[in-house]
Amino acid sequence: MDFLNSAVGAINEVLWSYVLIVVLIGCGLYFTLRTKFVQIRMLPEMLRLLKGGIGTKTTGGTVSSFQAFCVSTASRVGVGNIAGVAIAIVTGGPGAVFWMWIIAFIGCATGFVESTLAQIYKLPRGDGRFHGGPAYYIQNALGQPHVAKLFAILISVTFGLIYVSVQANTIALSAQKAFGFAPLATAVFLCVLTALVICGGMTRIAKFTEWLVPIMAGLYILTALIVVFLHIDQVPAMFALIVHDAFCPQAAVGGGIGTAVLTGIKRGLFSNEAGEGSVPNAAATANVSHPVKQGLVQSFGVYVDTWIVCSATAFIVLLSGQYTIGGQLTGIELAQASLASIFGALAPAVVSIMILMFAFSSIVGNYYYGEINIAFFEAKSRRWLYLFRAGVVLMVLFGCLAELTLVWNLADLFMGFLCLTNLYAITRLSKRSYIALKDYALQKAEGRDPVFRANVLDDTQGIHAWGKE
By Cβ atoms counted within 10 A, which residue in 69, 152, 307, 468 is the most buried? Predict the structure, then answer.
């Protein structure tokens, strides 16, 4: 295990230090400029669409816009928002939080482009149901089936297996610290629970996340607000520290500003998933009248994940003063210690329950991304689907028993490969998302509820779910 961990760490050092940081920021800035800062000028419309989708009734296997948003948020809002942020602060200092905010801001534009493309190139499954994602637009729009299959394999392994182990690992650590549960006992419980939910398919997953996500996010944000209120006199100094250390890190941050930037970007991307190609798989399932509607809703999800939920953890850790840069106390244990210093001995148990909700919702959301991409291969997909489900359950077991460092290093490695493949595709296809956005804005200006017709695009190859008249 030590050799594997060292090898993966060495690859990550090259991949993240010299390749991904340039590609991610470059693409994010490019999409921001080409969409004319969609993350700012369309923010009111994002909020309107999200509010309007709450409580929408669906029939059969149809997935509403809000349900698709909740499935993607279930995957986004997980241990990355708690354990990942704590790790970022210990590794890169408070300044890493600033760079998480920056990557989220430009990531909103990336998220808009990829989710809009997923909607444009989604495939109908009958009865108002759809599926799609990067593998589908890479094959159907770019005409590159081998690259599409590579992506389908990568995302199935990354989300359905590697990321699942990260979530399970954090649940096990949290339960052991709070309740003294042995990791094996937690593993058995999680394996059974996971199997029960994932075998129900997309409809059960959508309904499960629709009620769980708002509850868990609301409770956690409320907790953070209480912490901020109790330390209100320290809040200005906290923000000043975050901004200062973003450009002038403390001496304890090995590698200086480079470490702060890279740590913030890695942990921010792991959390909000903008550009990874994961969220489009959920976005494509929504039954909406125009692709841009879901593109805007999913773009707002990046704000929810990083600027709200991740910030909540950062404020808890920084205001409690329990962290030490480069210290041994990190991850979920640091988050628990931070809350315990404020709320007392019961706090670790409460955090452990929150972690169970956050991480388990991510396990379910991550599984679905794998299921969609297993279906991409069509032939004998049911057999492979059952094997994949078994693999997910086994990775829950592995995650509960594995070392923390190895699990996170593997997540970073596969996340990097996913990003490069998806960003290549959406950069080539991004023009069509801009055309769709212009079409949406024109129809809104005319006072209409926008309805999409494929013939507004310069090329209709690979479009199967939208009328062309």
Answer: 69
